[in-house]
Amino acid sequence: MSEYSPDNAAVWFEIPVTDMARARAFYGAVLQNTLTDMDGPNPMARFAAKDDQAVAGHIYPGKPAAEGTGITIHLSVAAPLEDAMARVEGNGGKVVSPIVPIPAGRFVYCLDPDGNSFGLFN
Question: CB burial class (10 A; 0-12, 13-18, 19+) of residue 39?
Answer without folding.
Answer: exposed
